[in-house]
Amino acid sequence: GLLWGHRVVWHRSKSSLSDVKERTLIAIKPDGVQRRLVGQIIQRFEQRGFKLVGLKMLQASQDILSEHYCDLRTKPFYSSLLRYMSSGPLVVMVWEGHNVVQTSRTMVGSTNPAEAQAGTVRGDFSIHVSRNVIHASDSVEGAQKEIQLWFQSKDLLDWDCWDQTSTSE
Ligand code: ADP
Description:
- By secondary structure, the protein is α+β, with helices and mostly antiparallel strands.
- It is about 45% helix and about 15% strand.
- A 4-stranded antiparallel β-sheet has the order 2-3-1-4.
- The longest helix has 11 residues, at about 40-50.
- The chain is globular, with a radius of gyration of 17 Å.
- About 25% of the residues are buried.
- The mean pLDDT is about 90.
- Adenosine-5'-diphosphate binds near residues 72 and 81.
């Protein structure tokens, strides 16, 4: 418990429970799965201090993708985007924690990998906007919609960190 002890204390302070509970949707796209990046990506989010509350692997239907990307339906790349996103399995996750939406966007990097900083997922693992490895919700509202679209609430687990005192008898 010592290593992650400081986070236990954080979660136990009652002052800002609501923003500690902020959630975002992260999806590892088919190219990320193909390239065996799942472990490294999950590790980055765990290491940063976020909490995984939902996880599944699936091959997405056109229906769910057209809902997910409805704001982009007029873009020239829309149909190739849907083809890419349905071409193989996705790993879809919900992560929780303080400022998780904004912090995840920073960890993911710019949409266009040419502009993504080294140290971000896209800046480290991608060279092309049409194969950019990962999705992250871009606002708290957007995250709520996306989480509802991809997950049933029963599949999101509201678990607590183990109390150090109960494990160190
Ligand atoms: P983000 O995923 O960073 O939130 P957008 O919502 O603008 O970015 O775009 C959604 C996804 O559409 C991108 O992640 C990328 O996969 C794809 N995309 C965006 N722009 C282009 C483009 N110019 N050409 C091909 N694909 C694109």
